[in-house]
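Researcher: Here's my situation. A collaborator sent me these components and asked whether they could plausibly form a single complex. I don't have experimental data yet, so a predicted model of the whole assembly would be a useful starting point for our discussion.
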Amino acid sequence: MASLTHSTPHRMRRAQPMKLLTSGAGIVFVLYVLLYAIYASLQPSALSSSTFTNLVNNSVPLAIAAAGETLVVLSRGFDLSVAGVISLTNVLMAVYPQEGPFGALVSLAICLAVGGIVGAVNGWLVAILRLQAIAATLATMIVCQGLALVILDAPGGMVADWVSYELTDRLFGVLPISGLFVLAVVLAWLVFKRTNLGLGLYAVGADEQAASLSGISVIKVRFAAFVGAGMIYGLAGFMLSAQTATGNPNSGTPFLMLAFAAVALGGTSLSGGRGGLIGSILGAATLMLLQKVLFSGGVSSFYTGIFQGVVLVLAIVFGSAFARLTGRRTTA
Amino acid sequence: MTSQVDVMSKFQAEQDTRKARRIDRHTVSAIAVFVLCVVLILASRLVSPSLGSWQQVLTVLTLASFLVVLSFGQGLVILTGGLDLSLPAVITLGGVLTTTWIGNGPGAWYMLPFVLAICGGVGLASAIGIVWLKVPPFIMTMATSIIVSSAALGLTNGTPRGASPDVLLLLMKGSWLGIPAPVYFLVIFAVVGWIVQSRTVFGRYLYALGTNRDAARIAGVPITLVSVLPYVISAVCAGFVGMMLVGYANGATLRMGDNYMLPSIAAVVIGGSSILGGNGNFAGTVGGAILLTTVGTVIAAIGLEQGLRTIIEGGIILVALLLLREELFERLRGLSGKPRSGG
Amino acid sequence: MQEPVSGPAVPVGAGEVALSIEAIRKAYGATVAVEKAAMTLMAGEVHALLGENGAGKSTLVKILSGVVRPDAGGMVLKGRPYAPTSISAARAEGVATAFQELSLLPNLSVAENLLLPRLPKGVAGMTSAAGTWQAGAEILARYGLDHIDPGAALESLPLADRQRVEIVRAFVNARHVLVLDEPTAALADTQWLFDHVRAATAKGMAVLYISHRLSEVRALCSRATVLRNGRSIATVELSAATDGDIFEMMVGRRGHAARRAATSTAATLNAPVVLSVSGMAGDTLKDVSFELRKGEILGIAALEGQGQRELFRTLAGLRQPASGTISVDGVAQALRGPSHALRVGGGIAYLPEERKTEGILSGLSAASNIVLPILPSVSKAGLVSGRNERAASEEHAQRVEMSQRYLSFPIGDLSGGNQQKALLARVMATGAQTLLLFDPTRGVDVGTKQSIYAAISNFAEQGGSVLFYSSELPEIVQLAHRCMVLYGGRIFSEFTGEDIDEQALVAALIGHGGAERRASAGVH
């Protein structure tokens, strides 16, 4: 059948599905740039490298956590264990610090492994035993929180110096090192997206039955999504520890809502099959930037939440209205 | 034609099992949860003689009253297939407004309903976003939660002041015939809640909506009203829990609701309801709330540290989920010696 | 009538047996979907699978495709035992299916859909976008679908093209056996499909073709196996069987059913109009106008997807027409929703087509399901009275001959027939004077059908009006005072009283001989 080689004019259109899948990311990117412009006008130092590094460092744990959550949401699932895994890995880092670059590597491996194990348990409960995802991951989250409390019953401990200094520093004086971790997650995602499993994620999220009739193993895809997400939460916990340099058994709790907010803001549909990880990362960055903008605009930090909540709802409402205008069929 | 007759006769032969199963599914999980509570309290005696007393039962019931009220609202929302994440924030709002606006001064008789109305307004706002703007319940209630917490924070400048109105102190601290007032309240609330959920037209509409939204709509159920009300009721319940906590602790804090989010869902799920909506009953939820509280107090009493207590709580939810799986019921039915005709 | 040829007959081509099915049985809970189904497909033949709705065709297709596993019985593919455990396993053995409810992913591209679950690999084991596009383009070109962009998101295609993609994917994956389940439901032009089916059989492929359209079956297939109530009744040479023979095998009796309603037809023609539709258009509907009179049973006959669904849903208030007016009892109405439709004039109640997704509330008892629309009237001060609920549900269950013993069961546990009876009892309980019944006997057994017919007739005799669509012509012949045939979104022809005849309806369904009938019907 190779005789039918196709001419180039069609080739241009290949980029289309990619564009469609990331259109949510496009909207939130514009939002981010606008916010940053406002930030810069309120706070001239916003354009300096150190302010930017600070901002990136602040945003990274949430961005990575949201990236993990996206994997599960894309497959039409929910994963509340994000809070538990972050708390658990954070206290592990603070109670058992491993010095030096090699120690950091060991710590990272431990964080990824812990996250992967929790993800595998979630996958077993949801994909194989077919428990409701919200309820099952609620249980694993609580268990992880409990484990975190057992390891460290009150805030304290010290994260290894090497981790807390080097990972919050800048490379060549400009590039925030923590940003490189986000970049690594994005690259891994771009590769994963171009595997059969990655495509399966979108397929299962859009229509489980049709996916299975198309020959996709729904169980395998679901399981992989939870394991992958768990490992990414582990990374988020690692980065949070570098950030705070200390341990807190409840450090993951704020991430629960914010991670979902970032995912939704980034244009990933909570009913699955649409969106992507990059949008979630930008969504997380936007939420964190919003805090800075409000602060430098003189709004009391007490009221930050009001703006975050309103932005979240508006983003969802406009996102779906935009989707309808551009002719997408909504799956109701 | 004969095959049709076969199908019919086989179906009829199976009737009795089916009926038995229906009773099982609805009441057994509720009964099982209550039995588990009793067993747990009795067993705690073995650990320490100070446990398992009548006094401890009363303490458990008093503490459970918060969760029972809260999970009634959460249960109604879950019944329609939604989820209310704004409860902790609304608890705080209700509590903070009660102490700052009313305190122990006069005017509680009209101000308390007013505060509850404000809480109901928060629920209405969530419902508007969910029903008309089509924002998923999870996100919408999360957004109202963030907004309300932030408003409560700003309102109090970070430190809530004031004390509890006397009427709430009376409700939470009073007692009659040696039994604390909250226990009477719990019993009355449980009965009323059960009637609302299982015996009223509204309750029936909720089940219809949660089971199959399209079918309910075609059958003429006023779905807009029935979708909105649970969120309003849920927020009013949360506001009232805030007041109860104010009465119990004679003051409010900005974090007073934080520990109630997950238990409010867990009580509903342990009580046998599906988190996807459409089934379960309030008796089970009340049992779930009491069980969670019992576990909490027993574990606290035997001196387990917070971490282990949390692990056990998570484990209980997990076990409840595993036990409530539909397939498990099917399998038990198969083991009970009445094989399916199709097998 | 020729005797049906049972078992393997002389194949058309010089074929060997491609696939044989022996005594397949599959039950879902208490419902036996397929029982003793047997069939032999020869290589190089197009074999039709015929049967009423609910005869077990879909289940058989799912078993062949590896989606469900049979409880008993076996299959032999090319001389080897064939028991696929998944759809991929079936494909690996060369059996592929184009499903009736398309199995495509709306959010993926055409090329990705065609190649799932494994896309071409490029650099470092990653799927290659260029390779996928290329492979998709080649497949589309091979099947003459150059106009479809392989990179387009599937949901951006019109329904007909989506159906073609589904069919092409099955062609690509089938080596020995190709199953086409209602492949033309959304295709206006069947020539494309027929050409490729013939090309495939010429290379020795066996094709199992499932369609409601007998004319298509005759044009394409050589033999047909008829399924009834989950059993294979016979396999016939199509050239030797008349339409009447086939109908008889499908429904178990001759096609010419006795007309039940004949006597009262004249009376209804002059009765007052309760529902009048004029110039309704939108989506698939084009200028639909008709009147429904008091005490009248008006049947709608149509092939799949001729606009009947839109018509019923519009009248139930579930969708808004682009233009046209609906008048109830002489007053023009904009129906805002089902609960509004129930309240206008004498009320309009709708029995939806999908029992599972739009009808039953599976966890609730049958009694609760029946009284749902009239809950306030069986309640006191907002409290549902158990006694009133029981009394009301018993009363309405009686009207559809539903046994009272079932009323306390969760409706999801009842057989399809009893579920349908309960739903009919529900629409009757509303007290609405006009009922919209969409395929009221879909997938129910013969006994239940009779009860449903009787309930509908009684309802009309007591002055109620019924608009009903049926996918089974004998049903329309038996019940309707008047019948309209929808074709391409228009009322193509109309028959009254004794003129409602199965042969004439069949012709009109496929767009033949309607115009003069319409002129002579003279009701408008």
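Model: Some features of this prediction you could bring to your collaborator: The first strand of chain A starts at residue 170 and ends at 171. The beta strands of chain A are 170-171, 175-176.
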